[in-house]
Design goal:
The chain is α/β, with parallel strands linked by helices and about 300 residues long. Helices cover about 25% and strands about 25% of the residues. The chain has a single domain (about 10-290), classed as Metallo-dependent phosphatases (Purple Acid Phosphatase, chain A, domain 2).
Length: about 300
């Protein structure tokens, strides 16, 4: 062994170091320029007692768009076009439309978002990057008012601690939207104001941060849609994401059963840290609500590539 070590020259060490650096650079390049532009469409079917017969309600969820120099509007436009091919009945947007502190042309962004509202009724809730206490504490966006105004001009109904009821695809649907918890704009009583449980109404809640499930479980709902985690953005094989911005690491991505109800956490479309993604592709989420018993098992839960 000592003889082998002695034979290693300074040039050998330099060659090894250079090879390692090249591999690392290749990995970073993939994570910054390849995977972030490789969206995956995840399609799930969820049975619910609130639909009857052959009724089907297709919900499209998009989250964590993070429009910024690393997530340009022309790429978001491309993702929206892919998403519209799924022909959703309803679109739910669950926060972080911008990256706090990054420049974005809100007028141009509005025109891109209009494609969603023109295709189907579209609802939005807010995220921590969109403004509020978290933004103020980090010296960035003071309020989510500008983002809410942009969404409204794009024809998107903002459910900021509010709810709406409508009939779509032959079903009665109640959509409840919460402000963000980190932004200190999270007001449950306002969001559920005036709602009563009816036997023929499906209730879907949009709340950016999945940790809010711990206080939302006191209210009646069937499906909770969340984002915020980006799936971790970087997932190490056999270990998972090393950093996630939630307290409960069980709810980082995907569909979960929670107290007899369903909670979905999407990996989101954009990201922070330059948009870096490794083993955690951007996600377009398609949830088909169909008639059935209270959810017990997933059906058609294997993700399919876009």
């Amino acid at each position: 062994m000592l003889e082998v070590v002695k034979r290693l020259t300074r040039r050998d060490w330099m060659k090894g170091s250079a090879a390692g650096a090249a591999v690392a650079m290749a990995g970073i390049g993939y994570g910054l320029f390849v995977e972030p532009r490789w969206p995956e469409t995840v399609r799930l079917q969820i049975p619910t007692r609130w639909l009857k017969g052959n009724a089907r309600l297709r919900i499209l969820q998009l989250s964590d768009l993070h429009a910024s120099p690393s997530v340009p509007l022309d790429w978001l436009d491309e993702v929206f076009r892919m998403a519209m091919d799924e022909q959703p009945d309803v679109i739910c947007l669950t926060g972080d439309y911008v990256t706090s502190g990054s420049p974005v042309d809100l007028e141009s962004y509005q025109k891109v978002l209009e494609k969603l509202s023109e295709a189907a009724p579209t609802f939005a809730s807010m995220g921590n990057h969109d403004g509020g206490k978290w933004g103020r504490d980090t010296g960035r966006r003071e309020s989510s008012a500008a983002i809410r105004l942009m969404l409204g001009k794009a024809g998107i109904q903002v459910c900021h601690n509010a709810n709406v009821e409508m009939e779509v695809a032959g079903a009665r649907l109640q959509v409840v939207g919460l402000g963000d918890r980190w932004a200190k704009e999270f007001f449950i009583q306002d969001a559920f104001q005036g709602l009563t449980r009816n036997a023929d109404r499906l209730r879907v809640v949009m709340s950016h941060n999945p940790d809010t499930k711990d206080v939302l479980h006191y209210h009646s709902w069937e499906l909770l849609l969340c984002g915020h985690t980006h799936g971790g953005q970087v997932a190490i094989p056999g270990f998972g994401p090393p950093i996630v911005p939630v307290l409960d690491h069980e709810y980082v991505k995907g569909l979960h059963e929670y107290q007899g109800r369903r909670l979905y956490v999407t990996r989101g479309v954009g990201g922070v840290f330059g948009g870096l993604r490794i083993n955690c592709r951007p996600e377009i989420t398609v949830l088909d609500m169909v008639a059935g018993e209270s959810p017990v098992e997933l059906t058609d839960s294997k993700p399919r590539r876009a």
